[in-house]
Amino acid sequence: MSGTPHARRTVLRAAALAPAVGLGLTACSSGNGPNRSAPTAPVDLGKSDDVKVGASKLYTDQNVVVSRISEDEYKAYSTICTHERCPIRHLEGHKLVCQCHGSEFDATNGKVLHEPAVRPLAELPVKVANGKIIAGPAKKA
Ligand code: FES
């Protein structure tokens, strides 16, 4: 046997904490992970008919959610969470749920439904051109 009981306890405690620390870093780290910003130029999101009237669609690669309010009216919002800037990855109907700390937003108007976020999602200009949805970039504040 090597090491004192105290040294072994320290090693075991560090090993037990390592996965939790690693998960925390993965959930909100920056760097080589997924795209963490809203469009900085207009982006083509594909066919306008991909979003049915009354529905919302999440575009995770572009960090945009589009809601089709009526046949000709669309709304688009950045899906960068206004709490600590995690890219939101879950849409349940019209409700966006941030996986980092549980904030929820209404995809049809960007409003906060559940804290910790307190600011609404950034609205993006959106239009349909040649049957394609074009959204962004965000307006400067
Ligand atoms: S970053 Fe979205 S809830 Fe904290």
Give the topology, please.
Elements lengths: L4 H24 L14 E5 L8 E4 L4 E5 L5 E5 L11 E3 L2 E3 L6 E3 L5 E3 L8 E2 L1 E4 L2 E4 L6
Antiparallel strand pairs: 1-11, 2-3, 3-4, 4-9, 5-6, 6-7, 7-8, 10-11
This protein binds FE2/S2 (inorganic) cluster.
FE2/S2 (inorganic) cluster binds next to loops.
User: Within the CATH hierarchy, at the fold level, what is the topology of the domain at 43-135?
Assistant: Rieske Iron-sulfur Protein
The biggest beta sheet reads:
4 strands, antiparallel
The CATH class of the domain at 43-135 is identified as: Mainly Beta
Report low-confidence residues grouped into runs of 5 or more: 1-32
Mean pLDDT across the residues is 83
Termini separation:
64 Å
Number of helices: 1
Can you list the ligands bound to this structure? FE2/S2 (inorganic) cluster
Spatial arrangement of strands, main beta sheet:
2-3-4-9
Shape: globular
| Count of extended strands | 11
Radius of gyration: 20 Å
| Second CATH tier, the architecture of the domain at 43-135 | 3-layer Sandwich
